[in-house]
Amino acid sequence: MNTVTILSQDPIVFTMLERFLKPDHQLIVFRTMPAALDYIYTTIPELMILDIRSIKSSCVSLLNQLKEDPIFSQLPVLVIFDDPGQLELLKTMHVEDYIFRKMLEQEIITRVNLCICRAKRIVELNPLTRLPGNNAINRQIQDRLDRKESFALAYADLDYFKPYNDKYGFSRGDEVIKFTGRLILNLVNEKQSKDNFVGHIGGDDYVFIMAPPLIVETSEHIIQAFDQIVPTFYDEEDRQKGFILSKDRQGIERTFPVIGISIGITGSHLRTFCHYGEMTGVASAMKSLSKRDEGSIYRIDQRQKNHITATKNTRNNGSES
User: Does residue 33 sit in helix, strand or coil?
Assistant: First the structure.
């Protein structure tokens, strides 16, 4: 089911939206913009519906800031207007569509479905994490390179995820994937609220873009939080043991540690890149180096300084990704 957030202080509007939309959509209702944004920053919905009567002038600024963020620019917003005289507000509000209050009963289902379908056609999103996918990632990197922007790119990958997925099944594996995406998104936004980017390459691979001075501390926080929380995704018996029994790529049963996370970092401030493929290649190489060591770890590309920096949380080593 698609998730739709609704900002309205009118119980009549909510009752009507619930009657028409609830059979096919999960509805999350808020009375204030800050509360709605707190939810959206944690869990990106498929659509946001704004009742104009609930929007103050300061809320318009908050909405526009959200939509100017590359991570949330793809979130479609449908605003409910009282009358045609309010259409002038469209010049100052970053919204995709509108509907008049008197037409809710006749058109709301059609407008909602069109907004969601249009967004899915235009923007490539990972269906699990709702984060931008490969095309958006490549565009973000290339645009920043073309602008000669100073930025850092991190490539994150889970260790020992395949054995976990094989033992516990795809459904529980998907929960780990979604959790990791939310964790990275939340901690990146917490450290740098503007001009950042978080993308999901696919599977258990993610990228995030930040200002160079912030990316190391953020990677450390991601590692610490991940290692603290991920054991809760295991059964109690396996959590107590600190490992699971699963089959490796040769079909041989062996022990595997708890899932970890490896991060590779590079940046335009470290070397000159002309193409996004060059930059993602170096970040991926740093990530591959980090996967050779024990523990959740990040490695930084600093070849101009003839050394590579790493930090880690220790865990048992293994050979499966």
Answer: helix
- Whether residues 190 and 308 share a domain: the answer is yes
Which residues in the chain show pLDDT less than 50?
A: 305-308, 314-321
CB contact at 8 A, 37 and 102: no
> At residue 72, what is the residue type?
F
In a domain, 319, yes or no: no
One-letter amino acid of 315: R
Task: Report the alpha-carbon distance of residue 277 to residue 61 in Å, rounded.
Answer: 36
Distance CA 77, CA 72 (A): 11
| Torsion of Cα atoms, 232 then 235 then 237 then 239, to 10° | -30
pTM score: 0.67
Residue 193 burial (C-beta neighbours within 10 Å; 0-12, 13-18, 19+)? exposed
**315 contacts 296 by C-beta, under 8 angstroms:** yes
Answer with the one of 58, 89, 122 that is the final residue of a domain: 122
149, 206: one domain: yes
Pairing relationship of beta strands 77-81 and 97-100 according to DSSP bridges = parallel
What would the pLDDT profile of 59-116 be if each residue is shown by its tens digit?
888 888 888 876 787 889 999 999 998 888 888 888 989 999 999 999 999 999 999 8
**CA dihedral of residues 13, 15, 21, 25 (deg, nearest 10):** 110
CA distance 75 to 131: 11
CA 252 centroid distance within chain = 35
Structural domain span for residue 248: 134-313
* Cα of 312 vs its chain's centroid, Å: 23
CATH number of the domain that 53 lies in?
3.40.50.2300
- The residue from 88, 122, 156 where one domain ends is 122
The first and second tokens of residue 151, run together, are: 């930025």
Q: Give me the number of domains the chain comprises.
A: 2
SS3 320: coil
Give CA–CA dist 151/49, Å, rounded: 34
Domain of 161, CATH number, reads 3.30.70.270
